[in-house]
Design goal:
It is a single chain. The chain has three domains: 104 residues, no CATH class; 155 residues, Jelly Rolls, CATH 2.60.120; 165 residues, Jelly Rolls (Sandwich), CATH 2.60.120.230. It is 17% helix and 29% strand. It has 456 residues and is an alpha+beta fold. Bound molecules: heme C. Heme C binds next to helix 4 and helix 6.
């Protein structure tokens, strides 16, 4: 031992000195170092948990007051350390997103230290002002210009398998309007039973969407199980994701005569529950056409080219893990990409979105490495990247059909493309706006994200 000390580097000696310090006066050191709810933890919960964990949502408990949170401390620690909560399934080192509720390593360490330290309340005077979450029935962005409601109740039986249902409602719109914001409201009683709802506009927006460029979601040949046209996606509602407000001068089009399709996924909760959903729209003033129109479209993995989604070659052999499929979409004009969201079923494991620039440079935009079918999460880019015509959007999906996948209903099945949850899918939903060549040049010269755009 005598000779050991001189072998240590100065840095190691500092570390030893630091480690030794608390031992000198353990009680005092612990008091000062243990994070407190009021000072350290409440701000984290406000930012990353309360959007979902508040009254009248599908989350199991409210995480607002110390009294509500304290009994869950151990469970919170487990869920936070394993990064199950908040749900956020991407590689955090790739891309920058906003909003981004995920916790940094430092924040996770704070939660751990707080729980291990006995989850103390601390000084209530340290609490940040509480957030005024809107009442569950209030519209978050103001009074809507139009509310469209399901025309009958969805009756969710007390018990049974998950239900996937469609309701079509008329908008009654007699002229085209541009949407500034949109919000979906299941009824108060129904909210806990709604897993998610896709809301589509059934309308003839070929010219707007660009018929030749993107596979039409309302391709007249494409029908849902009831024979209704599928429509263009407006929003996907899920716990924590109830509405969208678009950037200045940016919107989605809702056309005269449009119908709304509510495509809901419900689960039973032990008692019969009725739900009737509404969607509220805030419009731009009559006659105003925002400069940028948002288009939602799907990139398919397992498709050799832009067209022919019905021939999707998704093929997932029994027992296989990391089954990879690729899809490519060539941009015929410049776009600005707003968000990315994966859609797969029980065997879904991961998905990546890459841009292959016209000069051949490849840029990984988002890596969903921990896909979980239970969550529908759109990842919005903080600095929406722009791409010129000729860029290829490349989407790669990974499925796990092995018995190690806890959600796998049957590892002996050969799985292909299909609507049933026991079939699978590999869709990358993208929200983007088309840009004129001039706007693209402006963005590009302003340095807005042609290069490491999504990532800086
Ligand atoms: C996007 C919505 C959402 C966000 C954000 C979110 N949660 Fe959750 N949380 C849920 C839902 C829904 C469940 C129930 C389903 C489940 O257990 O996965 C849940 C479950 C939990 C559970 C388990 C409860 C039980 O019954 O055992 C804990 C603990 C938890 N969340 C803590 C947190 C904490 C802490 C945060 C923030 C750091 C957070 N959650 C953020 C939606 C959310």
């Amino acid at each position: 031992m005598k000779n050991a000390l001189p072998l240590l580097t100065p840095a190691a000696i500092l570390v030893l000195a630091f480690l030794a310090a608390p031992a000198a006066s353990p009680a005092a050191a612990e008091d000062a170092d243990t994070p407190t709810f009021s000072r350290d933890i409440a701000p984290i919960f406000q930012r990353s948990c309360q959007r979902c964990h508040r009254p009248e949502t599908a989350a199991p408990m409210s995480l607002i007051t110390y009294e509500q949170i304290r009994p869950w401390a151990r469970s919170i620690q487990r869920r936070v350390e394993s990064r199950q909560m908040p749900p956020w399934h991407i590689d955090r080192t790739i891309g920058v997103y906003e909003p981004d509720p995920s916790l940094s390593d430092e924040e996770i360490a704070l939660v751990t230290a707080w729980v291990d330290g006995g989850a103390p309340r601390g000084n209530p005077a340290d609490l940040p002002p509480s957030i005024e979450w809107p009442d569950g029935d209030a519209w978050e962005y103001g009074e809507p210009d139009l509310v469209v409601e399901m025309q009958e109740d969805m009756v969710v039986p007390a018990e049974g398998p998950d239900l996937f249902v469609n309701f079509i409602a008329d908008t009654g719109l007699t002229e085209d309007r541009y949407i500034r914001w949109i919000e979906v409201k299941p009824s108060k009683a129904g909210r806990p039973t709604v897993h998610h709802t896709m809301v589509y506009a059934i309308q003839d927006d070929a010219e707007y969407v660009g018929e030749d460029f993107f596979e039409r979601d309302d391709d007249p040949n494409r029908r849902d199980a009831d024979g209704n046209p599928v429509g263009s996606l407006l929003i996907e509602y899920a716990v924590g994701n109830t509405g969208d407000i678009y950037a200045e001068n940016t919107g989605k089009l809702l056309m005269a005569g449009a119908k709304i399709r509510f495509s809901g996924h419900y689960h039973s909760l032990g008692e019969e529950i009725r739900d009737r959903q509404r969607v509220g729209f805030g419009f731009y003033p009559k006659g105003v056409v925002p400069k940028h129109r948002i288009v939602s479209t799907r990139l398919f993995a397992g498709l050799p080219s832009n067209r022919g989604w019905r021939n999707n070659e998704l093929s997932i052999p029994p027992g296989a893990d990391n089954v990879r499929h690729d899809g490519y979409r060539v941009l015929d004009r410049p776009i600005q990409l707003i968000s990315f969201q994966a859609h797969m079923h029980y065997r879904g494991k991961g998905m990546e979105l890459e841009a292959i620039h016209p000069d051949g440079r490849r840029e990984l935009l988002t890596r969903i490495q921990n896909y979980d079918f239970n969550w529908q999460i759109a990842y919005p880019y903080k600095h929406p990247p722009v791409f010129p015509a000729g860029t290829v959007l490349h989407v790669t999906s990974y499925h796990d059909n092995s018995e190690n996948n806890p959600y796998n209903p049957d590892p002996t099945a050969w799985v292909g493309w299909g609507n049933r949850t026991v079939d699978d899918m590999a869709i990358g939903w993208t929200n983007f706006v088309f840009l004129s060549d001039k706007d693209y040049e402006e963005h590009a010269t302003a340095g807005a994200a042609t290069g490491a755009g999504a990532g800086d």
